[in-house]
Specification:
4 domains, 3-stranded antiparallel sheet, 295 residues, Band_7/SPFH_dom_sf, Tetrahydropterin Synthase, Chain A, coiled coil, lipoprotein, alpha+beta, 9 strands
């Protein structure tokens, strides 16, 4: 108890009383308030009607108040407020006589302010504006309790507890939102991978095409140089004769390689002098077209 309003017969019997540190005593004379006794030893002559009415602690005290209320979006919550208060030494007589139950009085004011403030806020806003709610409670208590000799040191909203089902639903909503963000990020990553893979394949095919084109151009240039060199060194031969001979030689070399390979698959190609002549004609026409295009 903050106040102990008792008649201390032992102190009155010996006409002295001891007041502990951080405590004041209330002295009465013939049942009327006389003075506030500071910590120490005091003379209390009972023969002239002096007596000790009780003690009042000046220490900082804390009261935790749990208040159930409803938010603007119709969610019931338990708001836990922590009130730190103390009696003022210069108003000890008011604190001793004006209130019979200080804690109940403070609790009533806290209920009033919280139930007036929280219903104006949505649940999310209530969590975000805890300091505003605490400031409103502190201002109201400061105005009310100063008249009774008490000082409100600090007011804290230490917790806002929704119903268990509401908390579970909020967690599920939050989890779903995070999963949606994760799915979007994963899809975006896969999209980037596919784009990069397509760009790589396109670049690879482009470079492969460039390589094949250069290879064929080199073959054409090599055959042309061979034909021209052979025609110069062997008089009486034409370019057609030289090209036919080169193609026939490469044809038989290819056939030899196919037959010598141990793991080669069956390959069906036309064979015979007529087939070789047709192949030579096709290659010669291709070389002539390539040469014309090059020029």
């Amino acid at each position: 108890m903050i106040i102990r309003k008792t008649r201390e017969g032992m102190g009155n019997l010996f006409c002295c009383v001891q007041v502990d540190q951080s405590t004041v005593a209330i002295k009465e004379r013939f049942g009327k308030f006389d003075e506030v006794l500071e910590p120490g030893c005091h003379c209390l002559p009972w023969c002239i009607g002096s007596q000790l009415a009780g003690h009042l602690t000046l220490r900082l005290q804390q009261l935790d108040v749990r208040c159930e209320t409803k938010t603007k979006d119709n969610v019931f919550v338990n708001v836990v407020a922590s009130i730190q208060y103390r009696a003022l030494a210069e108003k000890a007589n008011d604190a001793f006589y004006k209130l019979s139950n200080t804690r109940t009085q403070i609790q009533a004011y806290v209920f009033d302010v919280i139930r007036a403030s929280v219903p104006k806020l949505d649940l999310d806003d209530a969590f975000e504006q805890k300091n505003d709610i605490a400031k409103a409670v502190e201002d109201e208590l400061e105005k009310a309790m100063s008249a009774y000799g008490y000082e409100i040191v600090q007011t804290l909203i230490v917790d806002i507890e929704p119903d268990e089902h509401v908390k579970r639903a909020m967690n599920e909503i939050n989890a779903a939102a995070r999963m949606r963000v994760a799915a979007n990020e994963k899809a975006e990553a896969e999209k980037i991978i596919q784009i990069k893979r397509a760009e790589g394949e396109a670049e690879s095919k482009y470079l492969s095409g460039v390589g094949i084109a250069r290879q064929r151009q080199a073959i054409v240039d090599g055959l042309r140089d061979s034909v021209l060199g052979f025609s110069v060194n062997v008089p009486g031969t034409t370019a057609k004769d030289v090209l036919d001979m080169v193609l026939i030689t490469q044809y038989f070399d290819t056939m030899k390689e196919i037959g010598a390979a141990s793991k080669s698959s069956s390959v069906f190609i036309p064979h015979g002098p007529g087939a070789v002549r047709d192949i030579a004609t096709q290659i010669r026409d291709g070389l002539l077209q390539a040469s014309h295009h090059h020029e």
